[in-house]
Amino acid sequence: MKRRRFLEMLGTAGLCLATPAAATSAGMGDVRPSPGAKGVLFDAVRCIGCRKCEAACNTVNELPAPKKPFDDLTVLETGRRTDAATYTVVNRYLPAEGAAPVYRKIQCNHCLEPACASACFVKALVKTPEGPVTYRADLCVGCRYCMVACSFNIPAYEYHSALTPRVMKCTMCAPRLAKGQLPGCVEACPKGALTFGRRTELLAQARERIKGSPGLYLDHVYGEREMGGTSWLTIAGVPFSQLGMREDLGTASAPELTAGALAGVPVVVGLWPVLLTGIYAISKRKEKQAEAEKRAAVAAAIAKASAEAEAKLSSELTKAEVANKRLIEIEVKKALESAGQDSAREES
Amino acid sequence: MHATFTSLHDLMVHTKGVTYALMGLVLIGMVGFWLFLSGREQDETTDDHGHGH
Amino acid sequence: MSEHAVTAKQSLFTPFNVVAGLIVLMGAVLTVLRFTGGLGAVTNLSDDNPWGIWIGFDLLCGVALAAGGYTTSAACYIFGFKRFHSAVRPAILTAFLGYALVVFALHYDVGRPWRLPYPVFLSQGTSSILFEVGLCVFIYLSVLFVEYLPAFFEWQRMPKVRGFLVKLTMALTILGVVLSTLHQSSLGALFLIVPSKLHPLWYSPYLPVYFFISSMFAGLSMVIFEGSLSHRYLHHKMDQAYTSEHDGVMLGFAKAASLIMAGYLAVKLFGLSMDNRWSYLATGYGAWYLTEIIGFVALPCYLYAVAARDRNLGLVKRAAALTVIGIVVNRFNVSLVAFNWQLPPEARYFPSLGEIGISVFVVTVGVLAFRFIATRMPIFHAHPDYPESH
Asked: How many angstroms separate the CA of residue A71 from the nearest CA in chain C?
């Protein structure tokens, strides 16, 4: 997939010399995912929609109090998403008529290759080796490309802050993790629907649960490969599409999606000046040639004209000479004649 | 030089950063190289025109 | 400065000035609202729709339509079409003002505009396509400024600085084409990261190529369009060379635009077939896609061709206007209409009056700045001291 996309990129720009860049974009040799990276496993089969995680998240992150209290479960009747005051929400889904409701917790999935971090042009979003994707408000310009880039529609923005708007999203409680504490939501869950741990171990645990109760779970760990994999994993008993989760995201990560275009940049910088200077030199040379030809033609025309003029002149000159001679002859003749007449008159 | 990265994203930030710096140098270098490449030719063409190339 | 005396004689309250004044006043009010109440006070932006018309129109269309600067100077200085010479200065000025306005408009859109230099000078997020766009726009704006400066120094009669700057023309032109290639294409590449949000008919690995190629005919059409407007309203500022070359430039640009549009259509077609998107053509989005392609690309491409063959200047202008509208349609489709196409209708974005107001205000500021400069500095006419330079 990645390779195909890259080759397409190459073809598009006609930049066939970019091939070495393919090795770089696929150069996973230097990338070693941190083995200790943490994650959370969410089990939709165990979740009862009590919103205790929402309440804990609100407290732990010191977010503003919501309009309706967290024990008011009527909010579950409408679908919600994360916003500037809410890092996590639990939604209720009714997979089929009359079927029991299923709940799903929504928050940042902490992608292994986060699209938001890949999109951020000031490195305000960072994938830490410990697992969480964190945000630095002191760098953020507020372009909101991270929100455009996120396939899960997670980051939210403080649209009503005039001077210090921030991008708001779950941090997996990175500050708490640093102190050795659990994420707020995980700690508050009364049903064990949230499990915190090493991602590798969580994956194993998820597979065990699926294997242990095949009737209860579908055989898929959402987040194992989606968008290149996420630190937050989800297992459920109904198809994920019925829980409002996209199943068409593919496995290509954000850096892979943009690698081709980014690989084209240095090729343009390297070769465009060569190409353009070449075209310039050719057009300049043609111009010079045309000028030289023009000059030569003019010179030839002048030479021809002057030669003709000279020829004409000389012929005119000869003509004039002949005419002159004749004139002289006539004059001489006349003189002689008149002299003869004079002498004859004298004789008579 | 053989630093390891924990994500492809980190690797890309690093490699693209180095490449951007190199791109700047190359662009400046190209001007210099062009001047070197065509420096003499310019003199020739000005005093004797139509010289066969 | 004699121009001042001339304009002072006319009443300041021409219909144009009154309308422009009202728009600027409205812009001022909206500016206060925006920077006291935040983006939420004037826009319809939401967490699902973080980019509205300030990106879709002011940034994407603004940059595409300012492409006349690099296309015209490349045609004249690199490809050696000397007959386009008189068109270079107006095109450079339009491009410079266009980019300056894009950056100006961005100050409204981003949350903390005073941090806009951060990506270049403080913390370089080099993995981001937007970093590439920002860096290129920053450098290219400087390049355009330097390219425009000779006109300023001729006006101010400072021949030495002017002479030095003119020597840089070739290098600046090439750098301008490199930077334009990069950021025009990167604006399309911005959307490569969201195959899940952009409709398959508009999402393609070729997005950067589409944006780059369409920027070329967008720029050419904008030069024609802007030239015909200037011809009508700033005719008294034009010299013999400009007016006599004007028709030739228009026809040459029409032919070039038509050819490039044909290439664009070809690549668009290949894009559909490479990703096997045919089935989407039979849907509602497909009908709109075909409208864009046939009505706003194929049709003006044909009209340009007919106009160039018949040497029909009226048709050239109409084709240019249609092409410019087509570019706006395309950029709106990619950034707004086909973006988030899977969201339910109530979650979709539609611009607020405040957003439209700021966009109109930005365009008005551009027109006023263009008029101010073109009536004072040697843009449409050569400076009497430098008859050859123009």
From this structure: 25
